[in-house]
Amino acid sequence: MKDQQGSNRISSGVIAAVSAAVLTLGGGVAWLASNQSPTPTRPSNTITQPTQPSTTQPGQEQTPSVYWLKPNATSFDLVPQPVQIAATQPNQVLETAFQTLLAGPTEGTDSTTIPQGTKLLGLKRENDEVHVNLSDDFTTGGGSASMIGRIGQVVYTATTLDPNAKVYIEVDGEQLDILGGEGVELQQPLTRESFDQNYPL
């Protein structure tokens, strides 16, 4: 009888000790888990927040200009008109700028020598080159001054995003080498610098 009671006491003490150890261990694990759980969420918040503005800003930084002709005492000046364009891709920005150019000026003393009805058939920008494909209407009407003026408008508008870009002008998909009845010869590619040197307005 006494031996049974002693063994009962031992087993109760062992159970109590094991229960205390389990509770202590469980409490320690819970404490560790509760203290470590916020750690992964902090870096993810700090990483995602700075990246959001960088994905939305670059497209908003480009403001192209369309170039019109403004009469001066002896000839014309090429004058820029900034345009608001929502597009973010360079081709879309330039295409929209050219649509504005071909539509003609809407107010003020600015003018254009690009014939009405000229259409943009295609535009491609690669590296430092811009290829502008216009309809045959671009070659009609006007003397040499008119021809030089419209070439200047195309070259300066095409290089609005990169003033050092090389411009290739095509008509109906073919490179334009001579423009108009008076035969203004184009030395392509054209740049702002080469236009200013070889085709004074």
What's the tally of helices? 5
End-to-end distance: 125 Å
Principal-axes shape call: globular
Whole-number radius of gyration?
Answer: 37 Å
Strand content: 15-25%
Outline the biggest β-sheet: 4 strands, mixed
**Structural class from helices and strands?**
alpha+beta
Overall pLDDT confidence: 77
The helix/strand order is HHEEHEEHEEEEH
Question: How would you describe this structure to a colleague?
Answer:
- By secondary structure, this protein is α+β, with helices and mostly antiparallel strands.
- Helix content is 45%, strand content 19%.
- The chain contains five helices and eight strands.
- It has helices at 2-36, 38-56, 90-103, 144-158, 192-198; strands spanning 65-71, 76-82, 120-126, 129-134, 166-171, 174-175, 178-179, 184-185.
- The protein has a four-stranded mixed beta sheet. Strands 1-2 form a two-stranded antiparallel ribbon. The protein has a two-stranded antiparallel ribbon with strand order 7-8.
- Helix 3 (90-103) packs antiparallel against helix 4 (144-158).
- The chain is globular.
Key words describing this protein structure:
single chain, 201 residues, alpha+beta, four-stranded mixed sheet, two-stranded antiparallel ribbon, 5 helices, 8 strands, globular
